[in-house]
Amino acid sequence: MKTHSLRVDLSCRTQPHVFPHRGLATRLKCWIAGGVVVLPAFASGCVTHVQGPEELGGEAGNSEPGVSGRGTDQSGSPFAGAGGTGGASCDANSCSDGCCNGNTCVAYASQSGSACGASGMACSGCAGSCDVTNGRCVVTLASGQDFPGSIAVDSTSVYWTTETPAVMKVALGGGTSITLATPQSAGSIAVDATNAYWTSQVGFGGSVMKVPLSGRTSTTVATTGTNPNRIAVDAKSIYWAEAGGSVSSGSVMKVALGGGTPITLDSAQAEPVGIAVDSTSVYWVNGNDFGSPGSGSVMKIPLGGGAHTILASDQLRPQDIAVDSTSVYWVNYGTGPVDDGTVMKVPLDGGTPTAIASGQIGPQHIAVDSTSVYWTTRTTVMKAPLGGGTLTTLASGQDRAFAIAVDSRSVYWTTQNSAGTVMKATPK
């Protein structure tokens, strides 16, 4: 008895739990017996229409033409589908909430060592290792990196800096790492459609540098003040934080993408570290490690400068910041190796800060997308809904997880040690 994949349009009034992910249209393993489609027992009473493989393509990796498919609706009237020409039958469209185990969509929550992959990917197609505990396909994109620090991602590549120093990239799917630049120093990194930008600290001063995404010669965009730190870009400018060398000596700066005279947006800040930007404002956190514990702050200022706004105060060593259309998010490192770190949010215009997560051990970096907030701790990569709720561990057992970035499908991070790695987990 031969097995074929057919498309079955269902109206499961009696068993709506059978196909919870895809609504009416889904795919089943069906047996062709005497030219009639024999459906699995659990689909009894649900079938309204069966399409043959010609319309859908045959089984994945099978180029043999499909046979005609037939089925019956709930009244017993027959339907038929013409024979097919072969092709993939489990793909990103038919399997958006899991991976393809043969021609069956396996939900991420049920993944195991033999069922691990990305949306539309064969479960066995995980190029790395299947994290059975956390249900993710975990891939090492680069290894043997010297204390990889900041990380950024675009539609094709992952970018990071190392202490060596170097500015690096690798394709999203992995492969050979490419050195874009070998400057005197490479700190925080950001990318746009044409260039990678980073801060370079030499002595107590430094510079903002850039290099085309394809590599070639790097150039100095601006000379900085003391201890240039995190960096961000928009369509017109580069923004960075200068931590300074003493209490309240830090600055928030910007310069045009093509270079020019840097503009001081704010000064006398207590060790600004993380920085983010949206269409109207620049946001940063003051870690205030030089001051008393619990005196960090979250700040905001218009893109063109002006009066700053204190969005949150009395924070315990805030380290990094992210922003979306409604809120500002940041991580508080806490006192260090104990579980007093937090993940926080506050409305863009200020208000009462709320905790998304508490009891975290040394959270350092943060990223957001349209549904979730992501962060690293010393040994884990975590996420939670933007409004708070259940925490999800995306990866565990990491040796000093550090910088983090996300795209539409995956989460990326660095492990910061002398044999550091650049990692990827799917789904995010």
Account of the 3D structure:
There is one protein chain. This protein is 1% helix and 49% strand. It has one helix and 37 strands. The strands form ten sheets. It has a five-stranded antiparallel beta sheet, with no helix packed on it. A four-stranded antiparallel beta sheet has the order 3-2-1-4. 48% of the residues are buried.
Query: By helix and strand content, what is the structural category?
Result: mainly beta
Mean pLDDT, all residues: 79
Low-confidence stretches: 1-88
Tell me the radius of gyration: 26 Å
- How many domains? The number is 2
- The counted number of beta strands is 37
Strand percentage lies at: over 45%
Count of separate DSSP helical elements: 1
CATH second-level architecture of the largest domain: 6 Propeller
Strand order of the largest sheet: 9-10-37-36-35
Largest sheet: 5 strands, antiparallel
Note the overall shape.
Answer: globular
Share of residues in helices: under 10%
**CATH homologous superfamily (4th level) name of the largest domain:** TolB, C-terminal domain
Distance between the termini: 40 Å
State the name of the first-level CATH class of the largest domain. Answer: Mainly Beta
Any idea of the CATH topology of the largest domain?
Neuraminidase
